[in-house]
Structure formats: C-alpha cells, structure tokens
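Listing S7. Sequence submitted for prediction.
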Amino acid sequence: MVQVKVEKAKIDQRQTSLLVIGVFEGDLDIMQSKELDPAVFASIKETLQNKEFKGTFGSSILVYTLGKGPMKKIMLLGLGKKEKFTDESARICAGKAAQKAKELATKEFSILQFSNLDEGLIEAMAEGVTLALYSFDKYKEAKEPSTKIEEIAILINSDSPKFQSVADKASHVAEAVNFARDIGNLPPNDCPPAHLASIALSLAQEHGMKAQVIDRYELENMGMGGIVAVGKGSNNPPKLIILEYNGSSDPQQKSYLLVGKAVTFDTGGISIKPGEKMDEMKFDKCGGCTVLAVMRAVASMKLAVNVVGIVPSVENMPSATSYRPGDIIKMYNGKTVEVLNTDAEGRMILADALAYGIATYSPKAVIDLATLTGAAIIALGANVAAIVGTNKQLTDRMRKLADKTGEKMWELPLYDEFHDQIKSTYADIKNIGGRAGGAITAAAFLSNFASSTPWVHIDIAGTAWTQDGTHEKSYNPKGATGFGVRTLVKFLMEDEKQAV
C-alpha cells in the first residue's frame, strides 16, 4: 500500500526525486522565484513563455534540475482552465501524476497542492494517486517492474495534522476500492459463489465483523425461491453472504442495509446471451464486490455506524436443471413471479435478499447496487449510473454525494405506469416489462420487495467496469472500477457525523 503524507513545506525544503507542480492553462505566475534555484526557475519560465507547455488538462512536461535544488526532476502538470477546476479534476490530475511517476520508476515523489486548500482537495488528490497506481497482474507470468512507488508527499501551505487525517481516510477508502477491483477482475473459473463467500468470511475475521453464509438447501427451506431458481442451473451452488458491522455505541441505533448483486458469471441461462463480449459477464458480480468493499472500509475506519451487507451470489448457467421461461417462482416475501426471461436474473436474487434483509434487520434505509440492465446503459451511457428510489431525501443525498466523488448518478422516475408494465396474467408480477423503460421497470420489480423502508436502487451496469463508451480517467485502469464504494462510504461517514 502506497503511503500518502501531507506536509507543510516549501518546495525548496523537500528532498525528492520528483516534484509535481500543477499549472493552470494560461497562468504563467505559478510560483515565487525564491523557492527555486534561479536557473531552474528561468528554465520553467522560458518553457511557459515559449508555450512549449500550455497547461492544458492532463498534459505534462519534465524539467531536469541538474542537481540545482533538493529535487532531481520537476514535472509540470496541466490543470486546465482554473474556472473549470473541481475536486474531480484534482483526482484525475493526481492520478496522472502518479502514472507518470510510475513510468519514471521512482519510489517516491512530491506534489504541490493544486489549488486553494480544503479537505475536498486533499481527499481527491490522495484518492487519485492511490487509485491510479492500481494494477491487476495476478494471472500474468511477467509481473510489473519491481520498483513501485512507496511514498507520496502532498505539500501544503498550512498545518498538516488535520489534512493528514483526511488523507489517511481517503487512503482507506481507495484501498477498499482496489479491493473491490481485485475481486471484480477475478475470472469466473476462480470466483464461483463459494469463493466469494470465502473472501467475505476472511474479511469478517480480519476486521471483526459477524459473518454468515447461507447455502442452497437452507435457502430453499427459508423460501428464497428467487436465489435458488437462478442458481440451480450451475454446478456451483448459490450462496447468500451476510456481513454485520456494529460500530455504534447506541443500542437503539438501526443499521443501514446494503445489498449487492453478485452473479459470478452470467450466460443468461436458458435465455442465453450472444457470444460477443460474454466474457465481460464476470463483472456481473460487481455490485456484491462493492458491498464487500464498503464493509471493509467501514470496519477498517471503525466508523460509529451500524451496517449490514448482504450479497446474494449465483452463477447463471443453462443446463437440464436451469429455471425456465414460463416458470412461476414463489419469493421470500410470498409474492409470485412469472419468469419471462432467465437473463433477468439479477432482480430475482436481489428481491429475495432485499425482502430477507428488511424482515430480519428492520434497517433505517436500504441501498442496493447491481449491474442490472443494459437499458441503463442505453439511457445514460457508460459513465453515469441510474438511481431510482422510493425516498426523495435519500435519493437526493446519494446524488449530491456522487457529484462530490465523481461517481456520477442520475435519477430515473418511478411512476405508477411502470408498475403496470410488470403485472402478470398468471402470477403477482413478471420479471420483465418489455423494452420500454427497462431500467425503470427493473426497479419497479425490486420495489415490490422493499416494503415501506426508505430504499434506493443504483444500476451500475455501465459504470462497474471499463467498456465501450467509458470516458478515460487516470484513476480508473482497465477492468473493474469499484464504482460506488467511495460514494457509499462518504454517505456512511456523513451519517456518523450527524449521529455524534
């Protein structure tokens, strides 16, 4: 794990192999000349005045100091236009700095605060560098170079202890995101539901959480018809994974319930998917990966909140024992579902998990995450998650926090007519409502299992991994993104502050 330090220091006081200085587009007055050797400063000034480097967003240029000063090299990093600079800009730029430093095979580097100092800036910079240095080479014979960045110093113009605390929390969260990426990137042959359950049990043991794994026949006895139906087509039996974290000292404090879809591989079942890009269906477990990662972050940071994470995990395969179009399944809460498409399996397993979690824990609110529908990608593209909920205050909070984290979400409406689309002739409801408004009718289906509890559903089908149409970000390497972890942890941190 890379160590991120926040230090009050001038640039002529910090011994470093690489100093990163952010430059806004068109801004020539980037520093006081007294802080650099005159020859080095003159070289930088000439570079800017000759427009060899313009400060456009994400651009960079190296300046060699030739031993004149405590830094071996200086990287000028383009921050773009000052009026457009946000915390998300800082996150991306810090990630670019880390990637360039990695290319230079340096073990450490220093980076000047990009703009006016506040907690949001430091959080974004710490997240950016940690997330951008992530790589997944578990299955490669030729591993990455042995020289890895071990320490990054963010140099600020204020006292550092307060901001060091911010950076430490951001690093915990970023490591949790990378944990979600590690699981999400695992291939289906190495990550059936049993392996995901094993990861959760290890997580609970390491961080002092309660854990429970419910197996196929117990699920059947409990009436979890949706999970059992989807999972019975595979030789890898389904699991319901439950983690409980109790960090609040108030015995009356209710828990938040997080539910994450974890289909470790999705062929579509009998309603089989086209072969093209089916390999990407290993990412159909990413909602569950996010929930496990949030539980890890909350426990490692010892937040004073109570959280229950539930992950229904199955493998959706075609076989002689698969559930079929036309089947009618009785769910945990007693509702019956007519199956019209076995590729609409995520809502079947989420429905049981939602109903069970609410009945068992009586949570204050429920948030579920799922790579649920291609319709969400058609509606919003590959960079924005769809959010639907039954509680306006909860939905608005989540959207505002997503704006801060850069994990963009957009609300879709849950009007009554969408419920009409999933009415069934033969059962209470059916598991698809047609092509029109597919992301919303999926949410309408789930709302039947959320009862009256404040509930938000986040469809991360477009954002859970990098795919066609994904906007390139320095801190999102190819593969699983860990989308949602930072927003949900910030939500729970915010709740902790309100409770104190």
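Caption to Listing S7: primary sequence and predicted structure tokens for the chain studied. The radius of gyration is 24 Å. The CA atoms of residues 74 and 250 lie 51 Å apart.
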